[in-house]
Amino acid sequence: xxxxxxxxxxxxxxxxxxxxxxxxxxxxxxxxxxxxxxxxxxxxxxxxxxxxxxxxxxxxxxxxxxxxxxxxxxxxxxxxxxxxxxxxxxxxxxxxxxxxxxxxxxxxxxxxxxxxxxxxxxxxxxxxxxxxxxxxxxxxxxxxxxxxxxxxxxxxxxxxxxxxxxxxxxxxxxxxxxxxxxxxxxxxxxxxxxxxxxxxxxxxxxxxxxxxxxxxxxxxxxxxxxxxxxxxxxxxxxxxxxxxxxxxxxxxxxxxxxxxxxxxxxxxxxxxxxxxxxxxxxxxxxxxxxxxxxxxxxxxxxxxxxxxxxxxxxxxxxxxxxxxxxxxxxxxxxxxxxxxxxxxxxxxxxxxxxxxxxxxxxxxxxxxxxxxxxxxxxxxxxxxxxxxxxxxxxxxxxxx
Length: 400
Prior knowledge:
Layout: E1 5-6, E2 8-17, E3 20-26, E4 32-35, H1 42-50, H2 63-66, E5 75-83, E6 86-94, E7 115-119, E8 122-125, E9 136-139, H3 151-163, H4 169-191, H5 198-233, E10 245-250, H6 252-256, H7 262-275, H8 277-283, E11 294-299, E12 304-305, H9 311-332, E13 336-337, E14 339-342, H10 351-364, E15 368-372, E16 386-391, E17 394-397
Parallel strand pairs: 1-13, 4-15, 4-16, 9-14, 14-15
Antiparallel strand pairs: 2-3, 2-5, 5-6, 6-7, 7-8, 10-11, 11-12, 16-17
Helix pairs in contact: 3-5, 4-5, 4-8, 5-7, 5-9, 9-10
């Protein structure tokens, strides 16, 4: 595969985010290595980058938890990017702050209610608008349990992969979940004997069905694209020992959408919701829908379910999936590889696999941000990456 152009962050400014009171970091378009002791703020910086995407970032933390202890009570992140739109300024803040007259990086948001976003000087409510201009993928140590954990973790992982090629997917998922919560409240009232207008439930269920089918269709399309990208890795000598995967999405609607017109699947699910009101009321939740789906992953070379593979094999397979997803995003994002956030990615890889990973990243052309406590693990990247040392909420460029 030819080397892609890279979506690259060139300047990052943090204010009162986690343990960073104030940070301005200028970097090149290539890989970035952050090293330092545990608790120095390496993962905090990756989290700040991830919050430049829709959602709550790689930790799924509350916005309040992201605010620096003894800080202003809120936080702000500003960045400059090079990508399909050439140079681009983006920023996001929670609870906001007013910029000082000479503070060109601040978001100039005051009296903010909830999270605010600015893209090239234009304000947006919520984080969904970021999906149109930024693509990121990430791996964290918590994801090492992905294949053995609950289905919800894999479903959220899949939805993050979908978001890389379908920027509207996140808003559809949020809309469906909001409607589902409203339906659950109405059904709870029914269970307690309160009368509710059936027309109200009809409207909610019709909207749920519309969003649900769109979610299922987007997931199927993404799984198909991921399978193709993974298959292209099969047999490629430069893949560094990271196996290709076989993917299957288990879900009622995802299966139906493969065989029936979307409008028919939507009508069937609408009728299902209407017919199962009493059952769902008794359960206290909606028992059928895209929120119950699961992603099944197999280790391609071994034709074995990932959950049955060794810890090392699962880690290598997860990295292989992220590499395939990055390739998939690049092909649909005007040839630009996404920014990659790889937290402690080298810690449990042997020297051969570490070297293979670095070669894959350089070939992909992505700006990969990698963290670790041991700088020697990244020695193979000397001359190809920028190295920074983190300590007590500050960064300094490491000298080769």
